[in-house]
Design goal:
Blueprint (H helix, E strand, L loop, with lengths): L1 E6 L17 H18 L4 E6 L3 H10 L6 E6 L9 H15 L3 E6 L3 H10 L12 E7 L4 E8 L5
Parallel strand pairs: 1-4, 2-3, 2-4
Antiparallel strand pairs: 1-5, 5-6
Helix pairs in contact: 1-2, 3-4
Organism: Salinivibrio sharmensis
Protein name: Phosphohistidine phosphatase SixA
InterPro entries: His_Pase_superF_clade-1 (IPR013078), His_PPase_superfam (IPR029033), Mito_Ser/Thr_phosphatase (IPR051021), SixA (IPR004449)
């Protein structure tokens, strides 16, 4: 199965609270670039489920990406994938969801540091990878072992 872990687009530096930081125009553009890239990688394959952080910048990232991606079967606002989410808990939750629902493609839109730690839960390759804004890691997950290989780690600057 394919698991895509994405960091939200570039956001404003200040807001009333961290959860209220909105995307910048550059963040919107970067997210659109990455959505177009991902669409090519998926080659028409549908996204079974999208999990999005409740923070404004993550929600906006999904909103600008959605029209450029294959249809998503279900979109969920997931409280556990904020910047303060626990990677081990999210890893267990996602593995259970993937197994029970027999999902083929899942997209997670979240934040630093969770995106790096979460990627490392599957790949276990030493240091968690860094994620620029709008960057994505595409993991090929072996559902039997709950381990994965990273088939791509792409950021807008690399496009």
């Amino acid at each position: 199965m394919k698991l895509i872990i994405m960091r939200h687009g570039e956001a404003q530096a200040f807001a009333a609270s961290d959860s209220d930081r909105a995307l910048t125009a550059n963040g919107e553009q970067q997210s659109k670039q990455m959505a177009s890239w991902l669409s090519q990688q998926l080659d028409g394959q549908a996204i079974d489920k999208v999990l999005v952080s409740p923070y404004l910048r993550a929600q906006q990232t999904w909103q600008v990406c959605a029209p450029l991606l294959p249809d998503a079967g279900e979109v969920i606002t997931e409280q556990e994938i904020t910047p303060y989410g626990q990677s081990g808990r999210v890893y267990d939750y996602l593995n259970a969801m993937i197994e029970v629902e027999k999902l083929s493609v899942v997209l997670v839109i979240s934040h630093l540091p969770l995106v790096g730690y979460l990627t490392n839960e599957w790949v276990q390759g030493g240091q968690p990878p860094m994620f620029a804004t709008s960057a994505m890691a595409v993991l090929d997950v072996n559902t039997s072992t709950q381990q994965a290989s990273m088939s791509a780690h792409m950021s807008p600057r690399q496009l």
